[in-house]
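stage 2 :: seqdesign
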């Protein structure tokens, strides 16, 4: 998230995201000025750093990135991550709590990383949120909204 805080005009949104107990893959579109896109290239070529962990320290999840396209002010980046491991992140914790078959969408900008997760209406979202909060590193907090219907998708 550091590159978004340092470059407030940088935005990212998922084009698609899927997670199972075997791992996660996603394609994100980044937009911003050329210096921000160069920063994205640096962060999303470093397979030694987890871009998902919300907890302190890192995780043992294996990750790979591939730039699919873009220009000086945009990038489309594919990410593939290995099995759940100990990554304290929304998609991994959601699969752990609710099971597979969820729909994910995410946006990143400034100091916000907003996830939308379509779950069963009876899913215990409060317990899930508590699990996410329990492992946050200092300076992060979780907000929660119930859409009721997928109106924000
Ligand atoms: Zn992680």
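stage 2 :: out
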């Amino acid at each position: 998230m550091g590159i978004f805080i340092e470059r407030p005009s940088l935005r990212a949104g998922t084009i698609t995201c899927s997670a199972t107990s075997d791992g996660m893959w996603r394609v994100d579109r980044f937009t911003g000025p050329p210096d921000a896109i160069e920063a994205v290239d640096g962060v999303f070529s470093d397979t030694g750093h987890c871009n998902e962990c919300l907890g302190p320290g890192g995780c043992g999840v294996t990750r790979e990135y591939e730039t699919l396209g873009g220009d000086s002010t945009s990038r489309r980046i594919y990410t593939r991550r290995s099995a759940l491991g100990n990554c304290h992140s929304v998609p991994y914790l959601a699969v752990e709590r609710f099971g597979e078959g969820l729909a994910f969408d995410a946006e990143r900008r400034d100091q916000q990383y907003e996830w939308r997760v379509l779950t069963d209406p009876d899913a215990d979202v409060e317990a899930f949120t508590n699990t996410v909060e329990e492992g946050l590193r200092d300076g992060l907090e979780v907000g929660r909204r119930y859409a009721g219907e997928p109106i924000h998708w």
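stage 3 :: structure notes
- Residues 2-134 form one domain.
- The CA atoms of residues 1 and 17 lie 18 Å apart.
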